[in-house]
Design brief:
Helix content: 25-40%
Shape: elongated
Keywords: Signal
GO biological process, one term: carbohydrate metabolic process
Strand content: 15-25%
CATH architecture of one domain: Sandwich
Protein name: Alpha-L-rhamnosidase
Pfam families: Bac_rhamnosid6H, Bac_rhamnosid_C
InterPro entries: 6-hairpin_glycosidase_sf, 6hp_glycosidase-like_sf, Bac_rhamnosid6H, Bac_rhamnosid_C
Distance between the termini: 78 Å
CATH topology of one domain: Jelly Rolls
């Protein structure tokens, strides 16, 4: 009886203590708890799906490594059964390389057993987005780094306990014993998967499994980057790069709908960039902020949030208007870094053409938002500035990036741009960031089949190399004799991760999960499934599919009023039959 009474007595004591919070440490003060920041993410634990490599044969210095492939529970215990035993000598430091099956964001959990020596044991842990990165050392030749996130470290694991380490983007992990003549008993090695537990409200399914996989891969790439803020990459560039966010926010609208990570990130960039400064120091990135604000308002219809941007938006638009040469009608954005994307960064004439077009696009979006905010003076100023800018069309100097923007700004007919520039050489000179705008310009020209083919070729090539997320950059010239990212590089092969890349993403510094590469997800929803927003808050949608060589396409689209369900089927005579079910508050136009 006495044992049974312990529980209610203990509960009474603890509840009394909570009622007198001043007697407890401050962390138990309910009023203080209410002010503490909470994380929007959850944690789940993944066992490896494969052992890619071991430093020695089973039974030599590594015994029972296969046990890591069974599901764990994260708990050390005294049974000490079915352990993996790693034993080092003066000449051998055993190591194992694990594959967790897909790119994730998070860290690693190590659960140990008992050992002959009751003291911590040193392990070297290396995270990698590719097999070759996880096998690499921190060195300059292939640019393996610990930039932005620690991916190569030495840690001490406890005796009969648990250690959780790491916060990065990875798929592969290598562990090695560091010291000589030690033995480590390991019960579990599990990945800690940290992500927002949110539903995929949008969907895409068609008669082409490759397009379906590309759509989902783009969605997952952005999902991983939706951490406390909307990041560019989960390994490197774990920062809010506002220009890079535009493809991401387009994907979020198509897949997840309204999510607080977007306004939170937009506001961060605004608040740390007082005018007349440019976001991230780049003149185009403050333009992307305006374009994202317009697109986000169209999807959410959140007038309260838009009004919060009014003062900053007015000042920013006035600054852009002041940066137009009154004689030549040319942009003169000479007070910040002039940048479109990295592959075009050395083509100064192309950057000039791109910025001229972006000024037109930005001021058009700004005029629209200003009218909705009843700031008619700013809207009028934007309209007059656009008319001036359109009088001068710079040469694109062979750049597909600049060509796409010129077409999207209606400065040159999209059909002409597509025929003379964008379609020349297929996906040659595409980039994972501006590829989205090249696809948008091709769609504007009516070349939907060409866009579908380009998506299959360019983004499909990354999947063929073992990608489970899309990359910071990719070049079709890298393909000949290239290794897969999920295999050891064979003799005579090129290392697709370590041997390529340029600018800030040389070698292993190259991010293999970059949200700006998700453009095909948004594009397929908009043009193949056929959904475009006509009125703010998705009150009016236009649904016109462009199926190309597909026999059917179906999917869903999130709106503030609920999910729109869509299915298009091509009949034998080439006609398209559509079945669309939308919430009562959403009007659907079909022409």
């Amino acid at each position: 009886m006495k044992v049974r009474n312990i529980i209610p007595v203990a509960a009474l004591v603890f509840s009394t203590a909570l009622a007198n919070a001043q007697q407890l440490p401050p962390v138990f003060d309910n009023s203080r708890l209410a002010t503490l920041e909470t994380t929007p993410t959850v944690r789940k634990y993944l066992s490896p799906v494969k052992i890619v490599w071991q430093s020695s044969k089973e039974g030599a210095n590594i015994h029972n490594a296969e046990r890591f492939l069974t599901k764990g529970n994260g708990q050390a215990d005294l049974a000490n059964k079915n352990m993996c035993v790693l034993t080092s000598t003066s000449s051998v430091r055993p190591g194992i390389l694990f594959d967790f099956g897909t790119e994730i964001h998070g860290g690693l959990q190590l659960v140990t057993g008992m050992s002959k020596v009751n003291k911590p044991i040193k392990l070297r842990v290396r995270f990698g987005e590719s097999v070759s990165e996880a096998m690499s050392d921190i060195e300059p030749e292939k640019n393996a780094t610990n930039d932005h996130a620690m991916r190569d470290m030495i840690v001490e694991v406890p005796w009969l306990g648990k250690l959780e380490i790491g916060n990065t983007g990875f798929r592969f992990v290598r562990i090695d014993l560091v010291d000589a003549d030690v033995q480590l008993q390991l019960k579990e090695v599990r990945a800690i998967f940290v992500y927002r537990d949110i539903p995929y409200q949008g969907s895409f399914n068609s008669s082409d499994p490759l397009l379906n996989k590309i759509w989902l891969t783009g969605a997952y790439t952005v999902h991983l980057n939706m951490q406390d803020y909307l990041w560019d990459g989960i390994k490197r560039d774990r920062l809010v790069w506002i220009g890079d966010m535009h493809p991401e926010t387009s994907t979020i609208s198509a897949v997840f709908g309204n999510n607080e990570v977007v306004p939170k990130s937009l506001d961060l960039s605004r608040d740390i960039t007082p005018l007349p400064g440019y976001m991230n120091g780049m003149v185009s990135y403050s333009m992307w902020w305006v374009l994202i604000q317009r697109d986000w308002f169209m999807h959410t219809g959140d007038m309260k949030y838009l009004k919060e941007q009014g003062v900053y938006l007015k000042g920013l638009l006035a600054h852009f208007i002041s940066k137009i040469d009154p004689v030549t009608n040319s942009e003169k954005l000479d007070d910040g870094t002039r940048f479109l994307d990295w592959p075009s960064s050395e083509n100064k004439p192309a950057i000039h053409a791109g910025l001229q077009a972006m000024m037109v696009m930005t001021l058009k979006a700004g005029a629209d938002l200003s009218r909705r905010l009843n700031d008619l003076e700013t809207a009028k100023n934007c309209d007059e500035a656009i008319a001036k800018l359109k009088k001068y069309v710079p040469a694109i100097n062979g750049s597909k990036q600049a060509a796409a923007l010129i077409a999207l700004a209606d400065m040159v007919p999209a059909e002409k741009i597509n025929n003379e520039v964008l379609s020349v050489g297929g996906v040659k000179d595409f980039s994972t960031f501006y590829g989205y705008y090249m696809l948008q310009a091709k769609a504007k020209a009516g070349d939907y089949q060409g866009s579908i083919n380009d998506i299959r070729t360019y983004w499909g090539a990354m999947l063929d190399l073992g990608a489970t997320t899309f990359w910071e950059d990719f070049n079709m010239d890298w393909l000949p004799n290239a290794s897969r990212i999920d295999e050891m590089v064979k003799p005579g092969q090129k290392d697709i991760h370590g041997d390529y890349g340029a600018y800030c993403y040389k070698g292993f510094r190259h991010s293999l999960c970059h949200g700006w590469a998700s453009g095909p997800t948004a594009w397929l929803t908009e043009h193949v499934l056929g959904v475009s927003v006509v009125e703010p808050g998705c009150k009016v949608l236009k649904i016109v599919p462009h199926m190309g060589d597909l026999s059917f396409v179906e999917g869903t689209f999130p709106t503030p009023y609920g999910i729109v369900k869509i299915k298009h089927t091509k009949t034998a005579d080439g006609k398209i039959v559509s079945d669309i079910k939308a919430p009562a508050q959403v009007k659907v136009l079909r022409k």
